[in-house]
Design a protein that fits this description.
The complex is a heterodimer of chains A (about 325) and B (about 120). Chain A has about 325 residues and is mainly alpha-helical. Chain A contains 13 helices and no strands. Chain A has two domains: about 60 residues, no CATH class; about 200 residues, no CATH class. Classes of the chains: A mainly alpha (about 325), B mainly alpha (about 120).
Amino acid sequence: MVVALVAIRKNDLFAVVMLFGIYSFLTAVLFMDLDAVDVAFTEAAVGAGISTVLMLSTLRLTKRYEAARRRNPILPLLVVGITGAALIYGLMDAPQFGDPMAPVHQHMAPRFIQDSPTEVGVPNMVTSVLASYRGYDTLGETTVIFTAGLAVLLLLGIREGQNTRPGRLAIGDTLVLRVVVKVLIAFIMLYALYVQFHGDYGAGGGFQAGVIFATAFVIYDLVFGEADVRRVMPPHWLGRLAAAGIFLYAGTGVVSMFLGAPFLDYNALAHDPVHGQHLGILLIELGVGTTVFAVILTIFYAFSGMRRPHQVS
Amino acid sequence: MYNYWLAVFLMMAGFYVVIAQGNLVKKIIGLGMFQTSVFILYISMGKVEGGSAPIVTEGVEAYSNPVPHVLMLTAIVVGVATTAVGLSLVVRINEAYGSVEEDDIQELDNELDTIQESGL
């Protein structure tokens, strides 16, 4: 909360972005405390990692300092105060924190908690609800991410960038950083794969794995420059990968339809329903991971490829 | 009840940034705060007293509700994707107007309007 307040007051946007990263990280810690390990994981990777990088790229393209304030803050404060008071008044009747009898725990949740280990056979209930019970929803969300990637491409496009000669370092000759990052990238990718394929048993899954895998490329880009990373992962491949992820997800659904079951019902994928569920979840998580990775990296390429305004001229 | 108050406070802080600040990058950060407050609201509703993380473990009786976790997990990733769309709009606006301050953009628009009107 304090971090949030300071972030509002600051004029130096660089500091604001950094504080926002810290704020995201603290939120992730809070989620961990509230038993939401998967969510904490995602928030730490996305909020504290990728969004900070994206905001910094935006600052590079715009201005670091905010203009002096010319407005009267009383009217917005009044509106905010009234809205906040109304919300708190509305929440007076809400159930107590941690109450097991709260309505939110009464309808779907007990069934998911009791039956999902036997029905889906996956210990992580978040994964089984995400991938199996609410498979349609997750397909929709993956498509939203894909569409957002498309929107960024339409708005910015992937341009060549400032540093197109391979072998030229982006941040000067920093030996220690280069060596450390080289070692680190391998572990980051390995970890991403672990998160991808172990998501059924522990915290993690396609969303987190995609983001972490993209992070490895982002770090490579930041240290070794755009040209090198684009030789490893050419931009035109990313669009195909993103589409391939969705195709894999929806294709799994279509295959289950051909096998005589409803769309995205994985029971039909193998002779044993539990095996079918396993296979289905593995496939669609792979689809989600591919799409998320490709879209995040596309967005990053789009931002890093832009030149500063005064360099365009 | 304090979990709701925290969520409401953060939501209002984000809301204030969105309506009171002129800088577009800061507005997007405000939206991000607003979004996080909703995550906190959902996740805190899913918590069960004495419950543990919803991964099947031997010897654990009560689990926290997995449904809000699923909803928020996907929302975070969708959130960063939409934030990126917002930021790229900001970059384009900066290219077109040379500024990311709302007041400057408004002035430029007004000037453009008067020029067009006088031309007609």
